[in-house]
Amino acid sequence: MTQGAQLILVDGSSFLFRAFHAMPGLSNAEGHPTGAIRGVVSMLRKLCADYPESAIAVVFDPKGETFRNEIFPEYKANRPPMDEELRCQIAPIHEIVRAMGLPLLVVSNFEADDVIGTLAHQASRARVPTLIATSDKDMAQLVNEHVSLYDSMSDRETDVEGVIKKWGVRPNQIVDLLALAGDTSDNIPGVPRVGPKTAAKWLKLYGTVEGVMANAGSIKGVVGQSLREHLDQIPMARRLTAIKLDVDLEVTATELKRSPEDVEQLEALFTKWSFKTLLAELREQRGSEAAMALPELEVSYRTVKSSLELEAIRSEVLASRCMAIHLEWTSCLGGPSAIGIAIAAVPGQGAFIPIQAANESSSTLDSLEPALPLDQVVQGFKPIFEDESIAKVGWELKQLWKLVQGAGISLKGQCRDVQLLSYLNDNLSRGGHTTEALAQRHLDWTLTERVELVGTGKHQRQFREVSLEQASDYCCQRADANLRIAEELERRLAGSRALELCDEVDFPLSLALGRMEMNGVCMDSRQLAELSTRLEQRMREIEREAYALAGGKPFNLGSPMQLAKILYDDLGLTAPRQSRTGHRSTAEAVIEKLATEHPLPGVILDYRKLAVLKATYTDSLLEKVDSQSGRVYTHYNQVVATSSRVASHDPNLQSIPNRTEDGLSIRRAFVAPPGFQILAADYSQIELRVMAHASADETLIRAFRQRQDIHQATAAEIFDKPLEQVSAEERQRAKAINFGLIYGMSAFGLSERLGISRARASHYHRRYFERYPGVGNFMASTKDSARTLGYVETLLGRRLFVANMRSPAPALRAAAERTAINAPIQGGAADIIKLATVAMDRKLESVGLNARMIMQVHDELVFEVAEDAVDRLAILAEEVLSNAIELLIPLEVHVAHGSNWEVAH
């Protein structure tokens, strides 16, 4: 920024919206949203710190309409009403701005742009160096030799040359450019077919919009015709885009002054809104003793070095009836290997227990301090772990469970996994659900990052090499934070079904998934290696075929640039529109269309499929097979998918192809060890059954109750013919319709999917909802509810938040509506498989079968079972899965078994 700026005019409305979208989900102890307040205040305090001598004024839009609505009633009519979560934060922001001693201006009938424009014009005439802090492109018209724009997010300043470089016109031509091109964000109509680049070109030729209008007759082509047809609207558009420079204000630019901060008022406001970091900074500025440590964040952390100190921690936990834990561990075969355990019984206190390495007398940490054996620690806490009256709190508690269950210890009583609570609170959380993110979001607390201790790149070290003092503080911070975060999230979730879901479904599920992670899956590495070799050979054959089709010229089939040159330059195929960077797409959808013009694109598609199979599956799985056990060990994540489905990663076992011979070959490599079989139990058409239940559509329910082929039944309804007369092709189309429409697919999307005309697709679309009116009503009510509440609910009452339901952008809004329709269906199916997984995990523990659950793949559970127990497990699995939940229609389960997963599927 220009350090010589004497006046800074802040576009408060611009700051407001940026902060609201940048910091979602924050609230104070009473649940009042605070993200926008925090963001705006932080940006203003930075400006004040950077410019201690400059006058800073903050300008906001007024309530209601302005003079522009009198000129054009549809002005900004495309914008949805302001989100109530944002509206309720405006008054608190105004209050804090005043307490900061900054002039606050809100003028009825005029936007913030006009007030800023008037002040900037006055300052410019007085030759006062001025910065306008905004992200609003309209403000570029105010730039001159004395006035520049400043974007605080990118820390970028725009002067006259910057405007010319960005827009291609001088600042005094910006109004004319916007009058010609329009402004969709404000619903200001421009000349159709005319964008900023065309408008800039005309203004370079003719100087002003009046010059463009005078020469409209000489401008050729469709844009010239469009200009001539819309000449009458340009003057109005110019009046709407022009920022006023003569608003009658009670203060002039040269009279704007900063007043001293009202520190006591700011302290009270920062306390009210739970801004602990800002409060600390404020107190530190004052030099008060309170700045040394806030009461909310006063901490006392220690390192445990003896059995006596260990007993003291147990006493603290018994007194508080709560134990928050952070486990520091490394991964090894059979579960986590502990480096240290931190425990917090009350907020602000924590104790770190360094764990003695196996066969060593010292800690696994880089220290000569004595450490306690893991067995002594976990056995010492066994009565607490198994005491149902003592709450256990932590992040990813399944790792702690893995650690203690190996010693024959259970986790009983209330278990609060903060990442699961966070996901239940907000499945969309863009900041993630790590302890660091949750501490920042809910406590306004910045934790020490792991990278600060271990470093990065070639200088990175193992955590066990960190000093004991650093490790102790790091781990105690997290145990303490987990305790505070759990308290905050429990408060937020009180009154909803979320806490019940956590106790009855999500946490028990995490333990079942943890058991599957430890079980692993047996792999036939030789079969995988042979398949990888065959894929490599076929790829080489396809390469030679591609070279021949390209005229005998070798090229890299994996290079988009080389492929584009071959397809579009050498072969002359229909080229798609170039991207902004000048590249021509070789994406799959584009190549599929080109396959109708020439055989090479089809060959490229075949090559890509094989390359993906080899890299993503055969080679990747081979790398993950443990050399000792011959098994792969995946990780299951419950807080990644916005639909609430469980995800598998490192390696991903949930996306193994099952519709091609190559994909089936990969599944054949998932084998049972000698004396065992693979048994798979999966739900039949689970999402359609959830839709039938959720919509209560009588026709759909009747079809399922009568055990009809649902796709055949839909074909009979749509094509208006008896079931027995439905052809295979009609059934296939009905299948696409069933699955497409429950995901909110439009008639256009259906035409693309089926390769039919839009008219025919529209007919199918209309016919479907005529025959299944309950489905249509469910979709409409779901969208309405999501638009009103911001979330939908699954079968179990799980709230899944949906973004952009009120977005002014049609594409974003349409995508959000599709998500709203799909979320309760896919989320409901996820609920069912979660219930089934928990129930099967408990059954296997209680019935004594020689079997174990080894995978959860969407709607399927996969087991490894002794050959003499296959029949018993098949009966048990079918019974448990089909009775996981009671719906209006029966759940149907398919069970099969064999020597490998492909046979059992």
- For the secondary structure, the number of strands is 22
User: In oligomeric terms, what are we looking at?
Assistant: single chain
Low-confidence stretches: 288-295
- Give the percentage of residues in beta strands: 5-15%
Tell me what the CATH architecture of the largest domain is: 3-Layer(aba) Sandwich
Whole-number count of domains: 5
- How confident is the prediction overall: mean pLDDT? 89
Distance between the termini: 63 Å
3D shape: globular
Measured as a percent range, the helix fraction is 40-55%
CATH homolog superfamily of the largest domain: 5'-nuclease
Which strands sit side by side, in order, in the main sheet?
A: 3-2-1-4-5-6
Structural class, by secondary structure, is: alpha/beta
Sketch the major β-sheet: 6 strands, mixed
What labels describe this entry?
alpha/beta; Rossmann fold; six-stranded mixed beta sheet; about 10% strand; globular
Q: What features would you describe in this structure?
A:
The protein is built from 38 helices and 22 strands. The strands form six sheets. It has a six-stranded mixed sheet with strand order 3-2-1-4-5-6. Strands 7-10-9-8-11-12 form a six-stranded mixed sheet. It has 905 residues and is of the alpha/beta class. Helices cover 50% and strands 12% of the residues. The model is unreliable at 288-295 (pLDDT under 50). It folds into five domains: 7-255, 5'-nuclease (Rossmann fold, 3-Layer(aba) Sandwich); 263-297, no CATH class; 300-494, Nucleotidyltransferase, domain 5 (2-Layer Sandwich); 525-624, Taq DNA Polymerase, Chain T, domain 4, CATH 1.20.1060.10; 698-771, no CATH class. A hairpin with a 5-residue loop joins strand 18 and strand 19 (799-801).
